[in-house]
Fold these 3 entries.
Entry 1:
Amino acid sequence: MNRSNQILKDILKSNRLSVTNQRLLIFNILSQNQPLSMNELIKKTNSEIDRVSVYRIIETFISVGIAQKVSLGWKYKIELSDTFQDHHHHLICLACNKTIAIHNQGLESYLNKIANENNFETKNHQIEIQGYCSDCQKS
Amino acid sequence: MNRSNQILKDILKSNRLSVTNQRLLIFNILSQNQPLSMNELIKKTNSEIDRVSVYRIIETFISVGIAQKVSLGWKYKIELSDTFQDHHHHLICLACNKTIAIHNQGLESYLNKIANENNFETKNHQIEIQGYCSDCQKS
DNA sequence: CTATAATTGCAACTGATTTGCAATTAATTA
DNA sequence: TAATTAATTGCAAATCAGTTGCAATTATAG
Ligand SMILES: [Mn+2]
Ligand SMILES: [Mn+2]
Ligand SMILES: [Zn+2]
Ligand SMILES: [Zn+2]
């Protein structure tokens, strides 16, 4: 039982949500991976959880701030929320599909400035840079 | 026949693509709107074009640079490419769904810098700020 | 105007996500 | 700890988004 597992349970309990094996499994899968599409996530459960339940668990996780959606490759993927990892964004390689995390405070304040200028109250933002990683650039 | 309609025809012809009524209609719908989801776009055609053809036309438009996908609200929407409008990104209101275009050169160079630092060759990027517009903030 | 090539519409299909409901499991209470 | 209650899950079936094959239609070129 590590630190983040404890935080998970606290969040669940404080929202009157049960701590189930299915929820723990999904949390652990997310802990060990880059952002996953629903299908990738479902595959990683190795049929231990019904697809429908995976969808429902993710919906719940998002609603209480355990997980979050990120826009990647024209659809969303799921990763743990900023409660469990540093806020960041991704470069995604169009050739090998690798994602590279970027942590950049300057970018963040730039976005805040833009929102302010537009009288806009930011809840969230998505940034994705699509292109070719250093490994895939030769051709 | 306005200027951008002429550009459209030139692009089609230079790619050996026919100028059809269906393609003109879709181009005109896109010209008059904010980014549209495929479903919104299909609705706006008022059944004058089969859904399948709308999908195929958009695929063609994207492949020759007439239109482009943008990530908005966890799925992609379609808008005319930067050939027909200035490169920009969007704020999207979670309450009223309005999109607000932002043109910001500083943001663009910031992204380029980040890509460079990561030895990444950028093809494209997506930026979306989700939150509440000035009209929807009172509550 | 005719011939040729490209495009469209239709029917059917696939894969992703949602919904209703009964069976199971977790949390609470005694 | 056992019984009760409430939440969660799995299964079947529905819906929605996007795709494919093919014949009918329309556009382009000669
Ligand atoms: Mn960020
Ligand atoms: Mn941009
Ligand atoms: Zn790569
Ligand atoms: Zn609004």
Note: Chain A has a mean pLDDT of 94.
Entry 2:
Amino acid sequence: MKKRMVWRRLRRQVGIGLVFATVAGGLWYFQESEYRDRLTWKGTPEWDSMAPLSWHRVLRNDGFLVGWSDVRVSPLWVSYLLHDDKRSRIAERPDFQRDWRTIWPVQPTGYRGSGYDRGHLAPNYALAAVHGRDAQQASFLMSNITPQRPDLNRRLWQRLEEAVMDHFVPRFDQLLVITGPIFHDDFSRGVLNRVGFVEIPEAFYKILVVPGETPRGLAFMMPQDVKGDEPLDDFLVSIDEIEARTGLDFLPALNAEQQQRLESRIRTEGWGLEQVADLPGRYE
DNA sequence: TTTTATGT
């Protein structure tokens, strides 16, 4: 008799709890996607459901988003918008910081003696100049950092980032940048190929998109072992190729026809690449 | 005013 009443009450409470959790979760998700939409264009990268290595969760920062993989212990992509409205002075470089959202401990000191640089994906300068101090500090979170060989990070990659800020952003006014690592096809190669817990990529990609009715796109893929003074256009690839290598789908909210046009082949017309492809780096 | 590591 009494037992049945207790059961009924319990069931009702669980029911109310579930409804509450669902509503709260829905509200959270709604608000979170509003925040994300403000930081991107045509959605954030989505993963191929058949490829667990491309699964990730989104970390939201001031000025940029990070697709974080707890399997690779690495960001799979970062995404940020740039516009031609730069601050004239930017603050000093902050210290690298542990990001407590990553679960696996990735310490700022963890790269010491590894032969790899702590390479930014979302760059210090661009984030600081366009999005301000909080974004700059967030760019030094270890969730935004991947192991990069010094000749890539300080030379070729630096030249590409400089071309983005000094050439492409002024040229087009607004730019969406998606950038990230590319890993060896064979996951077993990555199990021990790590700096601390962080898997070491084979190469890196950077996708530039000019938002608009008929968007323009340009994409690069650069391996770890470069000298650093190569012409930037040696590394052009189609976005489709990057999708094939990463298991990610970029700009998922763009309609199929536009995606096909934008992603299937390399189109350099209008970018003025020849003006920047051979510019020397800042730290030769 | 654009990158980092250095048992400094």
Note: The CA atoms of residues 42 and 255 of chain A lie 9 Å apart.
Entry 3:
Amino acid sequence: MQLKNHVEWALHCCSVLASLPDGERIPAKLLAELHGIPREYLSKALQALSTAEIVSGTLGPNGGYRLARAPSEISFLDIVEAVEGKGCTFVCTEIRDNMPCAEKPPSKGKKRRPCAVARVMYDADEAWRSHLRSVTLADLAKTVEKEVPLRVLKGNAKWLAANLDR
Amino acid sequence: MQLKNHVEWALHCCSVLASLPDGERIPAKLLAELHGIPREYLSKALQALSTAEIVSGTLGPNGGYRLARAPSEISFLDIVEAVEGKGCTFVCTEIRDNMPCAEKPPSKGKKRRPCAVARVMYDADEAWRSHLRSVTLADLAKTVEKEVPLRVLKGNAKWLAANLDR
DNA sequence: TGTATTACGGATAAATAATATCCGTAAAAG
DNA sequence: CTTTTACGGATATTATTTATCCGTAATACA
Ligand code: SF4
Ligand code: SF4
């Protein structure tokens, strides 16, 4: 069981977008080049982010992507769920119903409380999500600023600026 | 991203085994029948549990599976990891190395500290595992005992006893 | 000793999901 | 009107999951 690579890409793209001067946009082509990943495929991830209203895409020349709201208002969970979906990692197929002396599933509309096994798995899933929910892009930016040598940060910013130049 | 159905099966089988009188064993065939799942395929999950030394299998007539240690010594995490592996759900492909002004990856042996993005994902993964680690089969049994009607519990136990009869 | 039972593990097939590319459409800028 | 760019449908490729099959070895029992 593995998250798809879209998650990694989306997180990195958002991280880059978070450090973008106000008003600027980065086209998918540049984001792909920056990370050395296939442009067309990355597009799918960006579109998912766009649908989830985490980034906003603009058409035409000088178009591209920017964050749809402040970095402090975008959590890791927002990004992960945008590309992976909100479904729980544990799916219960109600195999308990096959037990020889099972409780009958409720005939109509009524829902049963999920069983003890499923609840543990759901709680674990929620613990995962809860942690992701607690970290925002603003937090990430702060950490990166602290950890990555200034030379590297400036170098990348310069490259971006040069390539956005038009 | 979804856990494989082996996880659900393994958890249910362990739950059944936990309620088994001391000394008894259940063959894979019965466990499969009990849950209405394909016997040969379930075998794979049971073999994984066996390899992880969570259950112990015995060959020959009257053979079958039993737990390899006390229910209180088997956590959900043990079971999940036995069939899903211990690898983190987030895999980092070091795409930061493709940035135009990246830090050079350390030339030899030395390992870099994982980056900020990866660390958040790893921490979330650990939160998930940590919750699974905190619940044992003994805890599960207690909950089930409280929640499932006695009639159902006894009915299933009776069915098992009858089918183990030889 | 022989036969039935059962776990074990390799090989393989089928179905599903992840990964990747292609291309047509529409919007915006100049 | 032309270029740039996101958007989204269609499709191909590859990996993983799901499932079955069968040969081997160990054990119980007659
Ligand atoms: S996990 Fe619970 S709800 Fe899901 S199949 Fe098992 S018993 Fe049913
Ligand atoms: S998550 Fe971190 S370690 Fe992984 S590719 Fe991105 S920057 Fe590198």
Note: The beta strands of chain A are 55-58, 64-67.
